[in-house]
Amino acid sequence: MIELAYSILAADFAHLADEIARAEAGGGTICHVDVMDGHFVPNITFGPPVVAAIRPLTKSPLDCHLMIEDPDKFIPAFADAGADMICVHIEVCRHLNRTLQLIADHGMKPAVVLNPATPIDMLFEVLPMVHHILVMSVNPGFGGQKFLPRSIDRIKHLARLRSELGLNFRIEVDGGIAHDTVASVVQAGADMLVAGSAIFHPGKTEANARDFLSVARAAGSTIA
Ligand code: DX5
Ligand code: ZN
After folding, report:
1. CA of 7 to the centre of ligand 2 (A)
2. Is 75 in the pocket of ligand 1 (CB under 6 A)?
3. How far apart are the CA of 195 and the centre of ligand 2, in A?
4. In a structure prediction context, what are the per-residue pLDDT tens digits for the chain, which is 224 residues long?
5. Is this structure's pTM higher than 0.85?
6. What residues are labeled active site?
7. CB-hemisphere CA count at 13 Å for 34?
8. Which residues are within 5 Å of ligand 2 (an ion), measured at CB?
9. Closest among 35, 7, 34 to 198, alpha carbons compared
10. Exposed, middle or buried, 58 (CB in 10 Å: 0-12/13-18/19+)?
C-alpha cells in the first residue's frame, strides 16, 4: 500500500490542527513528526509535548523520526505522548537491537533510519525486528533540500534484501520527495513517502497531497 506520510515540519505551526486536516483531506494517512535536538542535526524542532498536542487531532499513526542523540532516554516520553512508530538513526545507536526492543516494549513500531552516507548492509542483523526502514534521501536537518539521486539504488538494494530474506518490512523515503521524484522512489520499492515542502502551501495543501498520491499510485501500478 502506497501512503503519504506528510511531514509537519513544512506546516504552519500556528495552525497545526488545520494543516493536518488539509493534508488528510488530500489523502495523507501517516503524520510524520521530525524531532531534532540541535546536536545530531544542526536544527531544533519539537518534542513529546507537541506529539501529545497533535495526538487527538488525527487517527493516523504518528511516525516520529528522531534526529536526536541518545534516543533511548526519550522513548518512554514519546510513548506516553501517543507516538505509534519511532524511527531511530543507526548512526547514534550503539546498541541498536536494545533500542528497537525498547521501542517495541513501549507498544510502538520500531524503525531504523540511515543517513545517505551509511551503508544499507549495516542493517542486516536488525531487518527481522523492524516495521520499516527509512532511507534518507537528503542529509537530515532541514526541509526543502534537493533529492540525492543515489537514493534510488539504495532503495532497490533494500528491496532486494527484503525479498531475498523473505521479510515484509516497509520502506520509507524522506527528503526532496515531490511530484517530480516520487515516481522513481516508488518504482525502486518505497511505499511510505515522506513529503513536507511538496505538500504544505497556503491554499494548496489538499490538492498537492491528492496530486502527489495520484502520481505515486500511478507509478506503483506499473511495478511488475
Ligand atoms: C529532514 C526531515 C524531513 C523533511 C522533509 O531532515 O527528516 O522529514 O521534513 O522535507 P521535504 O519534503 O521538504 O524535503
Ligand atoms: Zn523526517
Report:
1. 7
2. no
3. 8
4. 999 999 999 999 999 999 999 999 999 999 999 999 999 999 999 999 999 999 999 999 999 999 999 999 999 999 999 999 999 999 999 999 999 999 999 999 999 999 999 999 999 999 999 999 999 999 999 999 999 999 999 999 999 999 999 999 999 999 999 999 999 999 999 999 999 999 999 999 999 999 999 999 999 998 86
5. yes
6. 34, 174
7. 26
8. 34, 65, 174
9. 7
10. middle
